[in-house]
Amino acid sequence: MSGYIPPYTISNKMFELVSEISEKVGRITSHKELESKPHLRRNNRIRSINSSLKIEANSLSLSDVRDVINGHLVLGDQKEIQEVKNAYVAYEKIPEIDPTSISDLKRIHGILTYRTARESGVFRKGDEGVLSGSECIFVAPPPHMVNELMRDLMQWVKENEGVIHPLILSAIFHYEFVFIHPFADGNGRMARLWHTVLLYRWRSVFEYIPLESQIERFQNEYYDAIAVCHTKDNSDIFIEFMLDMINQILDEVVLQVNRSNSEVSEYVKRMLAVMEYEVPYTSNSIMEALGLKSKETLRKNYINPAMELGLIKMTLPDKPNSRNQRYVKQ
């Protein structure tokens, strides 16, 4: 094993975040909260894919991504649509991936970049760097070093699984992978996916934790943390950042689960079951999905109680009776 892995120090903040995250994961997994809710798992998977692609400038909306995955016709850039299809297939393979296998890494990259990249499923053959405007702020290791660096990194992961806490090990891998930049295209998507794969090996619930959506919200800070680590030759800042992102997204998932478990009427549960997250619905579309004929029944038994519990919201709260009103599941 080479001395490539840069130093890191377990800070008090890391220790506290690992403890908080472990407690929240335990809360979610103790009663198989996500396992028993296929709609939450599917929605979170779609959010993961949408956000990871959006970070890389894919312009498709969440509803577009959902439609592509559900096999519906979507009008848009064909490369972006293909990226969604590829990502869905790649994420479905999380349980079978060996995160220490270079052949698995190349195989999944081949799936993720199918029909969208010239060099798919192979390490890059050219030089790569990161530009800020016209200035090159980072130059990746030369291509002839990639094989050895990736072999060393995978060996390091293999040697340290069970030694370094998976929450920290996965963050270090993520940073190192981005630094090596082993592929000509798709490095960010692969780094985020592999981070999830490593976390999945620790707790399977991470297969359906939309970590990518949290990173997308703090995209600038994500790149800033990487840049600082490049400068300091130390991954501490990035480890703390990723732990913070995981901690925050788990708060959201706990809230999702609690809302799903809350003492709501069977009417409201039925309505929530036919609604997708973050998709705007008209009252007529909800009625059709539920097989209702009376708008008064919809308002009284379904919409109003769900609004009071904060389970759905209006897109036009200041105009409750607008014909353009839509309802969104939260």
TrEMBL record:
Organism superkingdom: Bacteria
Query: By its UniProt entry, which Pfam families does this protein fall under?
Result: Fic, Fic-like_C
Start and end residues of each Fido domain:
100-244
Q: Where is this site: Important for autoinhibition of adenylyltransferase activity?
A: E56
Query: In its keyword annotation, does this UniProt entry include Ubl conjugation?
Result: no
Positions of ATP binding: D185, G186, N187, G188, R189, M190, A191, R192, Y222, Y223
What Gene3D superfamilies does this protein map onto? Fido-like domain
Q: Which positions are catalytic residues?
A: H181
| Keywords assigned by UniProt, alphabetized | ATP-binding, Nucleotide-binding
Molecular function in Gene Ontology: ATP binding
The record, for PANTHER family, names: FIDO DOMAIN-CONTAINING PROTEIN, FIDO DOMAIN-CONTAINING PROTEIN DDB_G0283145
> What's the protein called, per UniProt?
Fic family protein
Organism, scientific name: Coprococcus eutactus
